[in-house]
Amino acid sequence: MPFLTRLWFSYWCFFAVLFDGVFASRVRAVREKKLPSLPGTPEPERERGTADATRALQLLGLLQREGRFVDFLQQDVEGFSDPEVAAAARVVHDGCRRALRSHGSIEPVRSEEEGTQIEVVADYDSNAIKLTGNVAGSAPFRGTLRHRGWRAIGFELPRPVGDHDATVLAPAEVEL
After folding, report:
1. Which of 34, 44, 80, 172 is the most buried (most CB within 10 A)?
2. For helices 82-103 and 51-67, angle between their N-to-C axes, nearest 10 degrees
3. Cα separation, 66 vs 143, whole angstroms
């Protein structure tokens, strides 16, 4: 697979994993080699217009409209100074944060402060807690909380209207 194709695919997978729990579980199972390999039975390709892809693209479009997220990611920032990049990041951050908050809420998975020693019980939710470092033995585990994690609560995107094309994240603007 060519590099640019892999780059675009990894970008798409990021949002698919972030907003599609079933897809994320399957990716995790493949990564951990828990899915049986069935030679000669390729996975069906996901169509560009599936509901999952449409919702992910709709969110990306929302982040673009409110915070110019895609513009920021597509911009080559090598030629800008750190203060210029920081100033742009503040504008993007503010708009994207506003967009997320207007469609739901996001809360930490763990309430403890990062850097705190915590215990992970035996029946922990492996979707909500990722063990890293020297993982050996069985739970309960004791370790340092490096990242609190995030969980979406009551997140709802607006319904697409008419012949809305979710692949158009932002229309081209032509000033007359």
Report:
1. 80
2. 130
3. 38
74 vs 19 pLDDT, higher one: 74
Cβ atoms of 104 and 153 closer than 8 Å: yes
As a three-state string, the secondary structure of the chain is CCHHHHHHHHHHHHHHHHHCHHHHHHHHHHHCCCCCCCCCCCCCCCCCCCHHHHHHHHHHHHHHHHHCHHHHHHCCCCCCCHHHHHHHHHHHHHHHHHHHHHHCEEEECCCCCCCCEEEECCCCCCCCCCCCCCCCCCCCEEEECCCCCEEEECCCCCCCCCCCCCCCCCCCCCCC
For residue 15, how far is the Cα from the chain centroid?
4
Q: What is the pLDDT of residues 115-143, one digit of tens each?
A: 999 999 988 888 999 999 888 888 889 99
Bond from prior residue into 140 cis (ω within 30 degrees of 0): yes
Cα–Cα distance for residue pair 126/120, rounded to 1 Å: 10
* Per-residue tokens: 126: 């492996």
